[in-house]
């Protein structure tokens, strides 16, 4: 597609490669527990600086890392009201089925449309490269999906309106 | 153990294995009649234990923990168990790695607060005041000798060189730190390298260090004659090798041989179901351990274990010419 999009995705890919260096780390606050530190934020020394990558005002990606987990939050482009509603519904559909995705977070982080939570256990079970490819692929596909949905909604609207108004002719 | 075994060390002369786990417990296993029998260790920890190492004389071992303390354990004959003394002060975060100095008294620790510290662990009744140890024998237990604030990020994998003169540890910001003449006026060097951070290091000789980490490929660092450390090369090829034991590259014969072997010891926390692919390690390499014949000063073989569940043994015999005369 357009060059800026390629650069945006390449930038996210490189950041993820550097950020996805996770290791098993037991909780310092509670004994015998093992929690994703990026969600709890109880020990500031275990968190790294969050990185915000923006394609333009409407699209951005926030990557927060800690010693055993990584959170990626995306904001998808929404040009008009219709796309707004479509995005919300579509991403809600995906988030509800977060268990199937494993790395998806059920609720997006405040201010974003969708979030992923990757822990060290995911990195152990799955290949890091494949995880990164999945996220980047996801971002590319979302846009195509939303556009397709918009076109089909518009087409259907036109058909319905034509049929309805025929009776008045 | 109820939770994952986070650290394990095998003492070569007394043939004991010590294991520590995230469930705050530790056991010392001795071989009795073909079976490994655990002995209780009173650790007095209230958080997970992260790492363990036997001291050079094998009469003590050190455990680093998430409770921001280090436990030094020694054997109490009357009750047949191992008792611990804690170094409680000084650490601001979890202790990720510990390493004993060859004199059996000094201990270096790294922590997720980014600092590397050297403590004295002189215990009356266990350590003898040795004229060789010099000034370190007069320090109290738990006294901090040195604090190194070189890293901005978490520190892991500290090791002493065979003579105890140099200390090396890695930081998460893709840096490796070398400190010479550890003492009142240390000389520190930081080497930044291009790729992903390391997790653990090993001194092959006084002037050569191998680092392993998220790149899944061991890296060699060497010091030249003036004592300046720098990154030399990767040991394996970056591209995945074809299935089989040799690499398809120009350095094929000279490089390490790969064969996987499973260690006959208690639980290995890094092992998952192993996948059989080409290439040596697919995932992050967690630790590197030397395989040396008794008495030899240089380490010629070492093994690496990684998150992909593989253990690889590397042989440096053929690499000597490639690595240069510094070896």
UniProtKB/TrEMBL annotation, chain A:
One of its GO terms (molecular function) is actin filament binding. GO terms for biological process: actin filament polymerization; Arp2/3 complex-mediated actin nucleation. InterPro entries: ARPC2/4, ARPC4. Keywords: Actin-binding, Cytoplasm, Cytoskeleton. Its main location: cytoplasm. It holds the Pfam family ARPC4. It is found in: Cytoplasm, Cytoskeleton. One of its GO terms (cellular component) is Arp2/3 protein complex. PANTHER family: ACTIN-RELATED PROTEIN 2_3 COMPLEX SUBUNIT 4, ARP2/3 COMPLEX 20 KD SUBUNIT. Belongs to the ARPC4 family. Functions as actin-binding component of the Arp2/3 complex which is involved in regulation of actin polymerization and together with an activating nucleation-promoting factor (NPF) mediates the formation of branched actin networks. Seems to contact the mother actin filament. This is Actin-related protein 2/3 complex subunit 4. It comes from Eutrema salsugineum (Saltwater cress). The lineage of its organism: Eukaryota, Viridiplantae, Streptophyta, Embryophyta, Tracheophyta.
Automatic annotation (TrEMBL), chain B:
Transmembrane segments: none annotated. One of its GO terms (biological process) is Arp2/3 complex-mediated actin nucleation. It is found in: Cytoplasm, Cytoskeleton. The keyword Repeat applies. WD repeats lie at residues 1-39, 88-120. It comes from the Eukaryota. GO terms for molecular function: actin filament binding. Its main location: cytoplasm. Keywords: Actin-binding, Cytoplasm, Cytoskeleton, Repeat, WD repeat. GO terms for cellular component: Arp2/3 protein complex. Pfam families: WD40. Functions as a component of the Arp2/3 complex which is involved in regulation of actin polymerization and together with an activating nucleation-promoting factor (NPF) mediates the formation of branched actin networks. Arp2/3 complex plays a critical role in the control of cell morphogenesis via the modulation of cell polarity development. Belongs to the WD repeat ARPC1 family. Component of the Arp2/3 complex composed of ARP2, ARP3, ARPC1/p41-ARC, ARPC2/p34-ARC, ARPC3/p21-ARC, ARPC4/p20-ARC and ARPC5/p16-ARC. PANTHER family: ACTIN-RELATED PROTEIN 2/3 COMPLEX SUBUNIT 1, ACTIN-RELATED PROTEIN 2_3 COMPLEX SUBUNIT. This is Actin-related protein C1. It comes from Eutrema salsugineum.
């Amino acid at each position: 597609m357009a060059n800026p999009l390629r650069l945006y995705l390449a930038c996210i890919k490189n950041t993820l490669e550097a950020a996805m260096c996770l290791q098993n780390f037991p909780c310092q606050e509670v004994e015998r527990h093992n929690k994703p530190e990026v969600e709890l934020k109880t020990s500031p020394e275990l968190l790294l600086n969050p990185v915000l990558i923006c394609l333009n005002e409407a699209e951005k990606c926030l990557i927060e890392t800690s010693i055993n987990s990584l959170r990626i939050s995306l904001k998808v482009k929404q040009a008009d009201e219709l796309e707004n509603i479509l995005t919300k519904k579509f991403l809600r559909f995906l988030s509800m089925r977060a268990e199937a995705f494993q790395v998806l977070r059920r609720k997006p982080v405040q201010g974003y449309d969708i979030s992923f939570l990757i822990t060290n256990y995911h990195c152990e079970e799955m290949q890091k490269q494949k995880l990164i490819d999945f996220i980047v692929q996801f971002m590319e596909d979302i846009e195509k999906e939303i556009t397709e949905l918009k076109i089909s909604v518009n087409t259907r609207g036109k058909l319905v309106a034509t049929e309805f108004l025929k009776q008045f002719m | 153990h109820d939770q994952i075994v986070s650290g394990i060390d095998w003492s070569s002369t007394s043939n004991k294995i010590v294991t520590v786990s995230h469930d705050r417990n530790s056991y010392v296993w001795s071989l009795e009649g073909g079976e490994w029998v655990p002995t209780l260790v009173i650790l007095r920890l209230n958080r997970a234990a992260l790492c363990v190492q036997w001291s050079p004389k094998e009469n003590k071992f050190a455990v680093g923990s998430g409770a921001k303390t280090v436990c030094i354990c020694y054997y109490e004959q009357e009750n047949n168990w191992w008792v611990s003394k804690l170094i409680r002060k000084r650490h601001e975060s979890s202790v990720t790695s510990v390493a004993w100095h060859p004199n059996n008294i000094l201990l270096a620790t790294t922590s997720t607060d980014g600092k590397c510290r050297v403590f004295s662990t002189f215990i009356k009744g266990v350590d003898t005041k040795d004229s060789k140890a010099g000034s370190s024998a007069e320090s109290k237990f738990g006294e901090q000798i040195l604090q190194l604030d070189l890293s901005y990020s978490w520190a892991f994998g500290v090791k002493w060189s065979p003579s105890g003169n140099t200390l090396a540890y890695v930081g998460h910001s893709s840096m490796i730190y070398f400190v010479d003449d550890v003492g009142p006026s240390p000389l520190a060097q930081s080497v930044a390298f291009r790729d992903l951070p390391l997790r653990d290091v090993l001194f092959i000789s006084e002037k050569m260090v191998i680092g392993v980490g998220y790149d899944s490929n061991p890296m060699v660092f060497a010091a030249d004659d003036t004592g300046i450390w720098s990154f030399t090369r990767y040991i394996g090829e970056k591209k995945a090798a074809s299935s089989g034991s040799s690499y398809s590259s120009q350095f094929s014969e000279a490089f390490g041989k790969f064969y996987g072997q499973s260690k006959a010891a208690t639980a290995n926390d890094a092992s998952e179901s192993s996948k059989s692919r080409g290439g040596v390690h697919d995932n992050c390499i967690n630790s590197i351990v030397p395989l040396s014949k008794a008495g030899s000063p240089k380490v010629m073989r070492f093994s690496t274990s990684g998150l992909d569940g593989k253990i690889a043994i590397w042989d440096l015999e053929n690499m000597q010419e490639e690595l240069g005369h510094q070896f």
